């Protein structure tokens, strides 16, 4: 009898933890901020080969999403990444830069698979996912010699792979950590929608970025 009473008490004590792990949270909004590193880029400027190396940059995202069930969710996310250019070489010759940066605005549709768990009495949700969308490059590049001057942008197709974990702090708030590997199509003289949109001759090829973000997710 004592054993049955203990089992019943344990079941009642675990009910809040089970609810955190098993009930689909519903719709949410999330803000994320962190840093990213762009891989070295081999591009083209007016027909000449260029090499660009980037300093670590900062990134911010705002997303709104919904749970289809306890394991699948989707979201619409808007992001901005900006990094200074550390080194710019044209035809193997280093050019001295004057406060040059490259920014990338993204609009992404992301899908995720989550695994609801309970750890230390709190809901924990590791997840993996991916997304597709489009980006807009905002480049401001100028050499001290004046041989290169770019101040414009270009639309590109964007894609990413994502992994992370969410820690349920309260039924309505979760803290998240996210890693993403983002890539885009090459910038061209034609933009993503087919209209004329030049980038003053500068083309980014195989743009790839690794991003680490910490976020707060609010359920409503």
Task: Tell me about this structure.
This protein has a single domain, classed as Porin. The protein has 220 residues and is mostly beta strands. The radius of gyration is 23 Å and the shape is elongated. It contains one helix and 13 strands. Helices cover 10% and strands 65% of the residues.
Brief summary:
The protein contains 1 helix and 13 strands, in the order H-E-E-E-E-E-E-E-E-E-E-E-E-E. With 220 residues, the chain is mostly beta strands. The longest helix is centred in the first third of the chain and has 21 residues, at 2-22.
Beginning-to-end CA distance, first to last residue:
43 Å
What is the name of the CATH architecture? Beta Barrel
Main β-sheet, spatial strand arrangement? 1-4-5-7-9-10-11-13
- Percent of residues in helices comes to under 10%
Order of helix and strand elements from N to C terminus: HEEEEEEEEEEEEE
For the record, the count of structural domains works out to 1
Largest β sheet strand count, sense and barrel closure: 8 strands, antiparallel, barrel
Unreliable spans are: 5-22
**Averaged pLDDT:** 84
Structure keywords:
mainly beta
Note the topology:
Layout: H1 2-22, E1 28-38, E2 41-45, E3 48-54, E4 57-67, E5 72-90, E6 93-95, E7 101-114, E8 117-119, E9 122-142, E10 149-170, E11 173-184, E12 202-203, E13 208-219
Antiparallel strand pairs: 1-4, 1-13, 2-3, 2-12, 3-5, 4-5, 5-6, 5-7, 7-9, 8-9, 9-10, 10-11, 11-13
